[in-house]
Automatic annotation (TrEMBL):
Family as reported in the entry's similarity comment: Belongs to the peptidase A1 family.
PANTHER family with a match to the protein in the record: BETA-SITE APP-CLEAVING ENZYME, ISOFORM A-RELATED (PTHR47966:SF51)
GO molecular function: aspartic-type endopeptidase activity
Keywords: Aspartyl protease, Hydrolase, Protease, Signal
Signal peptide feature range: 1-17
Short name of one Pfam family: Asp
Biological process per Gene Ontology, one example term: proteolysis
Active site: 150, 323
Descriptive protein name: Peptidase A1 domain-containing protein
Keyword Cytoplasm listed: no
Domain of life: Eukaryota
Peptidase A1 domain span: 132-430
Annotated organism of origin: Rhodotorula taiwanensis
């Protein structure tokens, strides 16, 4: 099952805030939030690989479909909100694809009517395999949720009334909740639908609070969602990617001057514990120089970078979307082919994936702002192609996502410290401490 935004069902009024320079009161403090890595079953580890070390082929297929849906839908949203076409995005191609991929909207709504209120309200496969969950508090007094922080989307939502079985947000129990009297709706990759009222309330993360922050306590889910360890999502992308029609959470913190600057940073790393730092970068988590590269198209955190194998560049100055909400590194199919042509014994496997002999070593590199970063084999290797095989499946995969860009997810991001500056509009990387 996939659960990923395909298209906004309702045309929401665009509420575009002017992004002024951030003026900062002295009392601001950065916030440090511990993140825990989960897989879908709520266990630690990667569910892209089974217990016997074999890559989970169903989940691999889901992962590429999810990425494809997520980026096509996002590019459409950026286009509807700003008129800007992300590189390679074609509205005609989107319409053709979405007609083929989705049943008519009326049929979807009918299905929702039947299933409404009977579904458990967690989010499964919104992301494609790994979740870095952390706690947020919404309302007065606070109600707590474990959410995933996703730089590849821009809306915040948690389960609300009408969803059962999990933590739900009770709007009447919060004295600061304000009903915006409009709806938020998203259709997901498997045809399921999520709908909820748009609300504003206080949202706190690790002691910093955004007042009147936009979110949706969702009340309708059109498919079954079982086993997710996170309750909801906090999107950390730009406002132009938002489907809700309000300033995203982090930009709200910045506008209200509660964080010292417009920077947030991730340390994901090898273990199952990471850190999200709001309001700067945590110098105890990285060493050496932090090197930044400009965002080239706003909406996603899209920068330019190069890819290569063992010092040989296979893709130069490609668009690369930095996405904590995606597990894999997804390359345009021809770029993936050029990359794996440099890996001895590598060949196309299935669904855009490549296999390579497990006993060879090769150095996979991404380069940003002139600095090369190596992706360690432990993150790149998704497991064996089959039991007893001596071929492994690589975490760099070729897939058309509807725009001319790579998607750089956790396979890479675990190996670096990453810094997102929403004011200067840059992404920086440094070596993890
Ligand atoms: C929601 O909060 C209100 C006010 O505190 C309370 O009366 C109601 O029982 C709560 N609803 C649920 C489902 O807990
Ligand atoms: C929010 O407002 C709308 C329209 O004013 C109303 O229909 C809806 O029931 C309200 N939602 C909640 C959760 O109070
Ligand atoms: C890797 O394994 C293959 C097949 O078992 C073998 O032919 C090859 O020599 C091995 N290569 C290395 C570098 O060990």
């Amino acid at each position: 099952m996939m659960l990923v935004p395909l298209l906004p069902l309702l045309s929401l009024g665009a509420v575009l805030a002017e992004a002024g320079p951030s003026r900062l009161p002295d009392s601001t403090a950065a916030a440090r939030l511990a993140l825990i890595k989960h897989n879908r079953e709520g266990l630690l580890g990667s569910r892209l690989c089974d217990d016997d070390g074999v890559a989970n082929l169903d989940n691999l297929q889901t992962a590429v479909s999810v990425a494809s849906s997520k980026y096509r839908a996002g590019a459409k949203r950026v286009y509807s909100r700003t008129g800007h076409k992300l590189p390679g995005f074609s509205l005609d191609a989107f319409e053709t694809w979405s007609k083929a991929a989705l049943p008519p909207v009326r049929a979807l709504l009918g299905a929702v009517g039947l299933k409404e209120k009977r579904q458990q309200a967690t989010l499964t496969n919104y992301l494609d395999g790994s979740y870095w969950g952390g706690q947020i508090a919404i309302g007065t007094p606070p109600q707590y949720f474990d959410v995933d922080f996703d730089t590849g989307s821009s809306d915040t939502w948690v389960p609300g009334e009408g969803t059962s079985g999990y933590t739900t947000f009770n709007t009447s129990a919060s004295s600061t909740a304000r009903n915006a009297s409009r709806n938020f709706a998203e259709v997901y990759g498997d045809g399921s639908l999520v709908v909820g009222p748009v609300f504003q309330d206080s949202i706190s993360v690790a002691g910093v609070t955004a007042k009147e922050a936009w979110f949706s306590p969702i009340n309708t889910m059109g498919a079954s969602f079982e086993g997710s360890p996170v309750d909801g999502i906090v999107g950390l992308g730009f406002e132009s990617l938002s489907n809700m029609g309000g300033t995203p959470f982090f930009q709200t913190l910045v506008e209200q001057g509660v964080v010292p600057n417009s920077v947030f940073s991730f340390a994901l790393g090898e273990g199952d514990e990471g850190e999200l730092y709001l309001g700067g970068s945590d110098s105890s988590k990285y060493t050496g120089e932090l090197v930044s590269t400009p965002v080239v198209h706003e909406g996603y955190w899209m920068v330019q970078g190069s890819a290569g194998v063992g010092g040989y560049t296979t893709s130069k100055d490609a668009n690369m979307i930095i996405d904590t909400g995606t597990t894999l590194v997804v390359a345009p199919p021809n770029e993936a082919a050029k990359f794996f042509a440099q890996v001895r014994g590598a060949k196309a496997f299935q669904n855009g994936y490549y296999s390579y002999p497990c006993n060879i070593s090769f150095v996979a590199e991404l380069e940003f702002a002139g600095v090369k970063y190596t992706i360690p084999e432990k993150y790149l290797n998704l497991g064996l192609t089959a039991k007893g095989s001596n071929l492994c499946v690589a975490g760099i995969v070729g897939q058309d996502v509807g725009i001319d860009a790579w998607v750089v997810g956790d396979v890479f991001l675990r190996s670096v410290y990453s810094v997102f500056d929403a004011g200067r509009k840059t992404v920086g990387f440094a070596t993890l401490a």
